[in-house]
Write a structure and sequence with these properties.
CATH architecture: 7 Propeller
Keywords: Signal
Shape: globular
Radius of gyration: 21 Å
CATH topology: Methylamine Dehydrogenase, Chain H
Distance between the termini: 28 Å
Protein name: Lvivd repeat-containing protein
Number of helices: 1
Organism: Amycolatopsis japonica
Structural class: mainly beta
Length: 484
């Protein structure tokens, strides 16, 4: 999550592979912190690593070059054995074909948080949700109350991963907090579904009500002609009104969506929309249609993201209680606040419904100084099983099995101790995804972490190879095959 605001032009882009090489030893793998055996109750020391026996760290690459330790790491997308990781200041391109020795290939300096990323072919889509003076990579911050301020989607050509090229930018109402790509059915165009929210009367480009999506059409052969083509309203009734949960924490009103996850093969999309969880029909790409909506006005505070299981019979919705900046993995919040909600998809066609089954939250308590809540993750492709790897900010990485949706359980974990014992300091893992046999984590402060999971329950996933992977564009995965 983290904040909502750019106009025309291009410029300042990459530190190339040659420039990165000049960084010398700074791009070498960081020495791992001391590893401790896990304890049921003890909070690890500052930066101390604890983990289950079946999950271990094999590499870490800290922020460097134009990105300092203050460059907040965000989302990850993968292509051709490379991981592209957003930061509030731009994005990094890592060669991860040897996961034990990831290498920085290029770094694009282009401020405009969150800079969430997605990839289609040789195109990279970058979300800007902080108002900027224009749409270039040289822009500076500008109040969103200024009509000339810019927010939206930037497009880069990454056919040469060592030298990404800025191609175009499209402004969208309320910016682009996250983006989800969906190919058209002919393969000629890509649609970018833009999630944004937080309208206000004093924001000329983000006026209430804002209960809609922005859809951008990108011609694959001529991405410079990308344009905004539709703004469908999902919540004509205004969605969840928000309010207070029983424990006094606030429940968000719905003013748009935070995140969308598409399942193009089945023409489905799951929306995590602040106060609502939504199942959508996207058979008409420009007219997404709500099939079913659910709310949880007891335990959920902010519907943040969604993940289908491999058979599209379940959806995991996350609740980002506290917006990612709060310590919610504490005894006083229990096991149902700041957790995942597992929903079964029942029925057929327009009669499909989302039915709540259970909650899942990491079983380890964290300290008062650690921001910790359910965040971004992905399926681990195991046939006949529903197993997910997921970020929990300073709660670390959790691998959990929800095959039995009524009884989800953790099967592996890895985490660092708090960044501070004295005060709450934001950090931890933002996004954690499975790609080509390994787990890749974007840490807000510590950079790229690579983990190796060795567990009999997930061995079949080691055989899956994907050319490209976007966590918000899911496809049915088949072990032993190249899934593109």
């Amino acid at each position: 999550m983290l904040q909502p605001g750019l106009k025309r032009r291009l410029t300042r882009v990459f530190v190339s592979a040659a420039a990165v090489a000049a960084l010398g030893a700074s791009s070498a793998l960081a020495a791992p912190a001391v590893v401790a055996e896990p304890s049921a109750t003890a909070i690890p020391g500052v930066d101390e690593i604890v983990h289950s026996p079946n999950l271990r760290s094999i590499a870490n690459v800290p922020q460097q070059g134009p990105f300092t330790k203050d460059s907040t790491g965000t989302d990850i997308a993968f292509t051709k054995g490379h991981a592209i990781i957003g930061t509030y200041d731009g994005f990094n391109v890592f060669d991860v074909r040897n996961p034990y020795r990831p290498k920085i290939v290029s770094q694009v300096l282009c401020p405009g948080g969150q800079n969430d990323v997605s990839i289609s072919g040789d195109l990279l889509f970058l979300s800007t949700d902080s108002s900027r003076s224009d749409n270039s990579c040289n822009s500076v911050s500008k109040p969103a109350s200024d009509k000339s301020a810019w927010e939206g989607i930037k497009i880069f050509d990454i056919s040469n991963l060592a030298a990404p090229k800025y191609v175009a930018a499209i402004e969208t109402d309320c910016g682009s907090h996250t983006n989800t790509l969906v190919p058209d059915k002919r393969g000629k165009d890509v649609y970018i579904y833009v999630s944004s929210y937080a309208p206000a009367a004093n924001l000329p480009d983000c006026q209430p009500p804002h209960d809609k999506l922005s859809i951008i059409k990108v011609p694959v052969k001529d991405p410079a002609k990308a344009s905004l083509v539709a703004t469908p309203v999902l919540f004509p009734d205004g969605g969840n009104e928000g309010g207070a949960n029983p424990d006094g924490t606030r429940r968000s009103a719905t003013t748009g969506c935070h995140d969308l996850t598409a399942l193009p093969e089945k023409d489905l999309m799951a929306g995590a929309c602040m106060g609502d969880g939504v199942l959508l029909d996207i058979s008409d790409r420009l007219k997404p249609r709500v099939i079913n909506r659910v709310q949880d006005n007891v335990n959920f505070a902010f519907w943040h993201s969604a993940t289908f299981n491999n058979d599209a019979t379940k959806i995991v919705f996350t609740d980002e209680l506290g917006g990612g900046g709060m310590a919610t993995c504490l005894e006083k919040f229990g096991s149902t606040r700041g957790a995942n909600g597992i929903y079964q998809i029942t029925g057929r066609g327009d009669d499909r419904k989302l039915e709540f089954v259970s909650y899942y939250k990491i079983p380890r308590l964290q300290s008062e100084t650690e921001n910790c809540v359910a965040h971004n993750g992905s399926l681990i492709p195991v046939p006949g099983k529903d197993i997910m790897v997921q970020s929990w900010y300073q709660g670390g990485v959790s691998v959990w099995d929800f095959t039995d949706a009524k009884n989800p359980k953790e099967i592996a974990f890895w985490e660092r101790g708090p960044l501070s014992n004295e005060k709450l300091v934001g950090g931890g893992t933002w996004s954690t995804y499975w790609y080509n046999g390994y787990i890749f984590s974007s840490d807000i402060v510590k950079g790229l972490d690579v983990l190796d999971l060795n567990d009999w329950r997930t061995f079949p996933a080691k055989l899956v190879r994907q050319n490209q992977f976007n966590a918000q564009t899911q496809y049915k995965l088949h072990p032993g095959f190249n899934n593109n």
